[in-house]
Amino acid sequence: MRDVAVLGVGQTKFGELWDRSFREIGIEAGLQALVDAKLSSKDVQALYLGSMASGSLVDQEHIAPLILDYAGLSSRHLPALRVEGGGASGSLAVHQGYLAVASGLYDYVVVGGAEKLTDVPDTTGNQIASASADHEWEVVFGATLPALWALIARRHMHEFGTTREALASVAVHAHAQGAKNPLAHYRNKLTIDQVIGATPVAEPLGVFDCAPLSDGAAAIVLGPWEKARQHTDTPIRIRASEVGTDTMAVHHRRSVTTLDSTVAAAERAFRSARRAPADVDVAEIHDAYSIAALCALEDLGFVEKGASGPAFARGEFSGGRLMVNPSGGLKAQGRPFGAVGVAQIVEIVRQLRGEAGERQVAGATVGLAHDVGGTGATSVVHLLERAN
Amino acid sequence: MRDVAVLGVGQTKFGELWDRSFREIGIEAGLQALVDAKLSSKDVQALYLGSMASGSLVDQEHIAPLILDYAGLSSRHLPALRVEGGGASGSLAVHQGYLAVASGLYDYVVVGGAEKLTDVPDTTGNQIASASADHEWEVVFGATLPALWALIARRHMHEFGTTREALASVAVHAHAQGAKNPLAHYRNKLTIDQVIGATPVAEPLGVFDCAPLSDGAAAIVLGPWEKARQHTDTPIRIRASEVGTDTMAVHHRRSVTTLDSTVAAAERAFRSARRAPADVDVAEIHDAYSIAALCALEDLGFVEKGASGPAFARGEFSGGRLMVNPSGGLKAQGRPFGAVGVAQIVEIVRQLRGEAGERQVAGATVGLAHDVGGTGATSVVHLLERAN
Predict the structure, then answer these.
(1) Is 0.95 exceeded by the ipTM?
(2) CB–CB of A74 and B103 under 8 A?
(3) Which residues contact B348 (CB under 8 A, 6 or more apart)?
């Protein structure tokens, strides 16, 4: 297996993109990434596309050849396929693209993620989101994704004394970062009081603890490390790409407050990259619900189990010890399911290149991306590193 | 890249399985394949699952960890993901599993395909099937999959003089084979007159020219060739695994009667295996509509363009020159979208092992599997070979 580099990145604005179709946003992100990689479309050898629910959302399955087609690439009959794993679909596509290049099968592949969530009513969108939980054992009994994460939050508060304010501090941080991100769905700042006082969704989680339903697409170009310098002065190496899974239903888990899929993926990633959590300068983590970010910081090994709430509230993860979600995360940058995992890589690459503008984490060399499907039946961890 | 062997195969009955859930059929096929491969579940290192539309059909996305979970494997947090490409989802999963073993990433992986189509009304199932065509340029104008294939059939008749009887002979052959297959959805024989006289669906195609909506699952275990003899006396080698794509919309193609995705995938497969169409002893090809089988035989290189109709009607592909679809194909064995491509590999492996019972093609050494999504925006070709 050879080393793999990210050669180019592209991303649309995230938000309510009512004037643009699924295929339009998919192509915009892909072409941006190709231009950024200084490649022409004729260099592309395969496409891996992450999308959770394009069939339910826009009546369109079979989207990988669709995007190739509308990018003008159909005449080359390239291999193309869609990868799905709930909200982790984008990072699973990155994992497959990584494998295709690492194995030597292809030199240059495009990995995309796209979702169009606002073409259906909010209630439908939320129902579709719950298709990433266990339909027969959770959803039919009325459990929705926010309800399941609220249950995890309640237990975290009970076991570890995590406060409502600590949960709220996750959303406040996300919006502070979103305000600096021109591609973010939400660019308004929030206060702790606003988050706590917001309309409840599933207590203790209010509407500002929950990431929005967004439209959006992101893409990256992967290639062999040995050719990376032909494309960029700041090549970014993928040091690890690891997938972990767990039970679908929360009630079947060893512990309600630990995502073992994240623990497994993180352990494998740090081991294979010969790195430790303390080496990470910048991280994009799953914060679809405020509690998810607190669990993630613990399960990734950045802080001891149960200690994330006070540490977050103290600012340790807003740049104190580590900067998490400089993009604004799912909460503020937005949550177009299948695009999220690819957009995380886009942000980490921009940070490691020193191209993140107002959001730049000074001197960032090692970055981590952490993507979750549903309530954690899938977790994906990528470690990226700047060469020098 | 190292050589890859199919070590075990498993398959449920195809048909209307109202008493069994998506997860139940998925697990049944997977466990059969593990037992057949003389492996325990603790040897499994990853799962690749093909399914086209589980979200729309059974309100469940995120199905790869679901199947691992209900197979009792969640505690190992294995990598698992779903692959989708319309009706070709199963063979795309095989392709990804092949790549994972060929690259050396894993030794033993399970590839599954599953679909549960009869839990929704027929009309809904057919609408969902059309999500593999181009929604914005075909489906919204009223085109359905049978309507699009009927258009291809009309053009084939116009260009090449293909007869209604030749189309019907595809279905007659499929049902003759289905009658010998205990797992087939349909085991009744048909006559040419019955096919031609059946209720029209989209002329010239009648209801007996169209494969049914079926429930079903299939699975295979892949492993490195050098370990194959530990598991079986008749190891089957995957000689080629190739994917081709094309435009989504039929009207955008160079030729309405040629599936360039199939031409591309077949050329790549024969080249990489250093084989020719004449070497193939047995083939499972895409016959979701009778015309699809005629196009496939031409596009795979088994017969000249336009000549498949008379050749099929003469029996050349019912064992004369080549045996196609010994299983009964999609038409008679059944058409649970995501399971089809995996089931094709199951049948080819059984044929090459000499374990196909009443359906056995004597002395079969080289087999081909050909899977199509939609009207051909994706085609996948696998070549398999018995060692001795």
Answers:
(1) yes
(2) no
(3) B236, B282, B283, B284, B367, B368, B369, B382, B384
